[in-house]
Design goal:
Blueprint lengths: L1 E8 L4 E8 L3 E5 L6 H13 L3 E6 L5 H4 L2 H8 L3 E3 L4 H10 L16 E2 L4 E4 L2 E7 L8 E5 L4 E5 L2 E2 L2 E2 L9 H12 L7 E4 L5 E2 H7 L6
Length: about 210
Amino acid sequence: MISFKAFVFNPFQENTYVISAENKDCIIIDPGCFDREEHQTLIQYIADNQLNPKAVWLTHAHIDHVLGLQFCLDHWKIPYFISASEIPQLKAVEVYAPNYGFNDFQPVIQEGFLLDQSHIFLGIESFSILIVPGHAPGHVAFYHQDSKQVWAGDVLFRQSIGRTDLPGGDFETLKKSIVEKLYTLPNETIVYPGHGPATDIGFEKKYNPFVSL
């Protein structure tokens, strides 16, 4: 059994998630926390719930999803997991961060473990790693079959999809990822996106104006 908490961080209004297991171990998905107040919000939640952070999992490496990555690695002394195809995107953030006003961005100096398997674990809880490029070249989603929940990053939103005009983006690739990897999940599967409210697969298959079935 798992539980989770969502936080909305940084000017991009990015969703950061903390998923925890019954034994209090937890992982952080896409840490977007940038300033001291956001750092403290995350620290306080983890401390108040007596959680034990084990790793950071990245759906992809666009700036809004990694602004707090190095902070998390330093504060909790934990590793992070990333798709090999996203490493160039992660390295590029240091270069363009000042263009977005993030002059205090902490470059990520620690090497990450590659998401080169089909599953990743939080204790005994198994998550399928879904390869879903289109918004970013190495984008992945994390699907927990037992609870029918998927953390999908910027692939699928409520009645919308991830933008495809950034480097490495492609609409047809994104559409294929959604149809073949997300829309094949059970209709009742809850989708937790990188921005905005949660949705579910059945609703999006009917009402998503960009990719409907």
